[in-house]
Every structure is written in structure tokens, then in C-alpha cells.
């Protein structure tokens, strides 16, 4: 009986060893799967980016559910953001070893050293809290190129880098349509749309944002492209309140408008707060009041639960949703924003 017990124990130990081996092989296979996808993406997208005139682009976009990361290249730097996993694929929080494996793959495949890689965790903010908080301090800025234009980015101080790459296609549309037009950039952020409009020959522009930091950044971007000019005006104001005041009392009209508001925004500098779902009907009514006859409005939101109300577009001649055509080729996930092109009547 003892002999039989020993045989069973040997089998048990052998089984446990086999299971451990399978676990190790599974982890190795998972890492290899991520590395292989990153290598495949990088080979294709680097060639594509060169043809597009891009030095900032996405090389991995949560392609594999088990590896919930976004990996972007900004010149010779990398920007890695870890996202929460979907419940269906969650195995608890990602381990330090998994992060280390991902970063090792980024270094090995992309050739970016650790000291030039910024790593962040995307933590969903409870609805009703401001989404743009500082996460670092004093990171060095660098210049990237996009379709013949240049932009300052900061990879360390904020979750966002100063350039929303998912709006690259819409920026190209704005440049094509801007010649000789008066352009309004509402919730202007760092002014990338303004740079494109100015490069496209806009007769003048107004960019509105509540943040002095972002407006200074926008001015730096204009200077970087030798496009700074008194015709391109930067206004520090609560965009929602400014828009309401201009719709009621202003005389200026715009041929081309971009409005890309945050999902939610609140600040001591604001009167109240902004909620894109709650406020978009009134906001679009005010925007229509600022459009010239036949004027074009690009309206976008990154709130994926957003529902465009019929009453918000009443009176417009054309309303076309551009999603997913507005999302660039390097973005694997197509649920990053929604975008519409709206045209006022040519009366």
C-alpha cells in the first residue's frame, strides 16, 4: 500500500510539474503574442507613417484583449498607457511582471530605451470630475511632425500629450477647407486645429480655451510653424459661456468651426460645469447662430455613450456622421470618438 501511495505521489508530482510547465509556456506564448503583434504593426505602420509625413503615430492599440495597452511613437520616444481590462478578460490587476514584459517588448521591437519611454495608467474618472489633471512635473517637450506641420508634445506631465492623434483625419479636412475663411476653434486645447486652419490659408481665426497653459502651448505651435499672426486670436475664456454670449450679443460669424468639447468639465474658473450630453442641444443652437450661410461645423466628442438629439441639428442643411472614417488607420480600436460634419443653409 505504501508502494502504491509512492507511485501515486510520483504521478501527482509529475502532473504538477506538467501543469507548471504549461503555465510557464502559456506566459511565454502570451508575451510572444504581444511582441509578434507589436513587431507586425511596427513594420507596417512605420512605412505607412513615412508616406503620411508622420513622426507621431500609434503602433499598438489594445489589439489583443489580454494586453490592454496603447503604445505610441513620438519621434524617438515611446508613450505607453495601460488601460483597465474588460471584465470578460480580467484576471485581476495587471501584474508588475506583465508591465515589465510589455516594456521590454517595446524596447526590443521599437528600439526605444527605457529612459525615452513614458508609462502611464489610464484610470477612468468618476462622471462629474475634471478629466485633465497633471500627472508629472517638468518633463521636457519635444517636436513631432504631422502631414507637413510641427507640434510640441509633452509625454510626461499629463495623461494626454498635447496632440490628439485620433483627430488627424479631421485636421486634414479643416486644412483643405480653410482657405480664405474665418475659423473658430472652440475648446481649442493646444491649437492643433488652428495650426491646420492657418496652414490652409484661413483669413483669420479665433481659438477659445479656459487654460492659459494650453493657450500658451497653442501660441508656441503657431510660432513653431511660422504661422503666428495678429489675425489668429487666442482667447482665454470658459468656452461654454463665451459661446452663449457671442450667440446672443456678438456680431462675428464664422465660415468654419471646430467644436471638440470634453465629455465633462468643471473648474473654479467656470460658472457651473459642462456635460456634453446634457448641454449639446443648447451648444449646437448657439454654434448655428455663429455660422455664416453655408458655413461648416465639425462637432466631435469622445463620450462614446453620446446620443445626438434631433433637436440639436434642427435648421441645419446637412448633417453627416464621419465616424469611423474620421479615425486614422493606426488606431485599431474605432471607439475612440464620434465626429459629425454639419452645414448651415446657404441663405
From TrEMBL:
<dbReference type="GO" id="GO:0008168">
    <property type="term" value="F:methyltransferase activity"/>
</dbReference>
<dbReference type="InterPro" id="IPR019614">
    <property type="entry name" value="SAM-dep_methyl-trfase"/>
</dbReference>
<keyword id="KW-0949">S-adenosyl-L-methionine</keyword>
<dbReference type="GO" id="GO:0032259">
    <property type="term" value="P:methylation"/>
</dbReference>
<feature type="compositionally biased region" description="Basic residues">
    <location>
        <begin position="1"/>
        <end position="13"/>
    </location>
</feature>
<feature type="region of interest" description="Disordered">
    <location>
        <begin position="1"/>
        <end position="30"/>
    </location>
</feature>
<keyword id="KW-0489">Methyltransferase</keyword>
<keyword id="KW-0808">Transferase</keyword>
<feature type="compositionally biased region" description="Basic and acidic residues">
    <location>
        <begin position="14"/>
        <end position="24"/>
    </location>
</feature>
<protein>
    <submittedName>
        <fullName>SAM-dependent methyltransferase</fullName>
    </submittedName>
</protein>
<feature type="domain" description="S-adenosylmethionine-dependent methyltransferase">
    <location>
        <begin position="138"/>
        <end position="302"/>
    </location>
</feature>
<dbReference type="Pfam" id="PF10672">
    <property type="entry name" value="Methyltrans_SAM"/>
</dbReference>
<dbReference type="InterPro" id="IPR029063">
    <property type="entry name" value="SAM-dependent_MTases_sf"/>
</dbReference>
